[in-house]
Amino acid sequence: MWRHLNWIVALFSGLVLIHGVAAVPGVVGRAEAQVKGQQSLQQLIDGAKKEGRLKIAGVAGGGRAGGAALGEAFNKRFGLNINFDYNVESTASTTFGQAISEIKQGLPTSFDVINGPIDRSIQLCKAGCQSIDNWQQMLPKGVDPVRASPHPVDGRAFVFATREPGIVYNTKLIREDELPKTTLDLADPKYKGKFYTAAWTTYVAYGPLVYPKDKWLKIMEGWGNNKAATITPSQGVKRMMLGEFAFEAFSNSYYYFQEKRNNNPSGLAFFRDLIPIDQIIHVIPKGARQPNAAKLFLLWATGPEFNDIFEKHSSTGNSNLETSEIGKASMDAIKRFGGKTFKWTDNEKTLDLLTWWATPEGVAYDREVAKALRVQ
After folding, report:
1. 13 vs 322, more confident
2. 164: closest CA among 118, 213, 124, 203?
3. How far is CA 337 from CA 173, 320, 370, in A?
4. In CATH, what number does 166-275+346-373 get?
5. For domain 52-162+279-324, is the CATH number 3.60.10.10?
6. Which residues contact 313 (CB under 8 A, 6 or more apart)?
7. CB–CB of 344/350 below 8 Å?
8. CB of 31 within 8 A of CB of 5?
9. pLDDT, tens digit, for every residue of 284-318?
10. What are the residue boundaries of the structural domains of the chain, listed by start?
11. What is the pTM of this model?
């Protein structure tokens, strides 16, 4: 195969010299890139076989059964027989800090692969994360490189799932046309006592992209005054389905899909003015013991085969993939509601705000938001 591809490259190169065809160098470049991609992929496979193990800080929502299914498919895909350790007890709040501490001490890291949000991934990469050479040529078929590994962590951190927080509601308690249409509407007295929020500010952090900070603080005060309770979403949605609450604002949409599968009265809607798209990312810390297996896994996890398994076990899709049923259903719903979406990696403005949240001023403002939202 390699000899055949090299012959094609040589042939195209000869045509350029003889005829001076301007378009051919691009073809040559693509052929050479494909060869490099195949060679790099084989090197990772060979390296993974020698390493014999892979330890991943996994996603709790996928459960042990999901981890086992991923390991079986990963080994089969690349002809491996490695020990696939998918830890579902780990949390991003601890694994990233632990990895950064280990890197600074020059120690091997506890995990080869860590998953979490973009801000933690950026922080880890500042301390030290591994990059993948020729990664664009090794992505699964149909995966968009720009979406799979966005700036500023391109080639180092890779998106394997997305969450589209919206309004998950009990269809027996409230109709779709009765739900708030924008984030401002939740300050309306008619919603008092009908909804709850989570005990964190992860998704409301996107608010200053749409509204001035002082206005957003007022909006959060309206939410705080009207909400019935602050609850962990996994518990809140159960109580919602039993009729205690009508809806949750900025709820992870996978709760809708989970409850729908259980034949509960679950509905999904979205605010028109603000819809965060939460990118869930895999990253390899500098001190990973099994870097080849880890890189192979990161690339594979951007594609449809990983998504099919992960989506089945976690009800979390990947809106970057056309083959993701849940990702597509979420994006179709967003289009139906005419909502405006935001990712932290959209542009310099979004990245600037993400960076600002970590400054002393941003930390102080976050405390004010939490106080207004009554999650402290």
Report:
1. 322
2. 203
3. 20, 19, 28
4. 3.40.190.10
5. no
6. 61, 62, 63, 65, 66, 69
7. yes
8. yes
9. 999 999 999 999 999 999 999 999 999 999 999 99
10. 1-51, 52-162+279-324, 166-275+346-373
11. 0.89
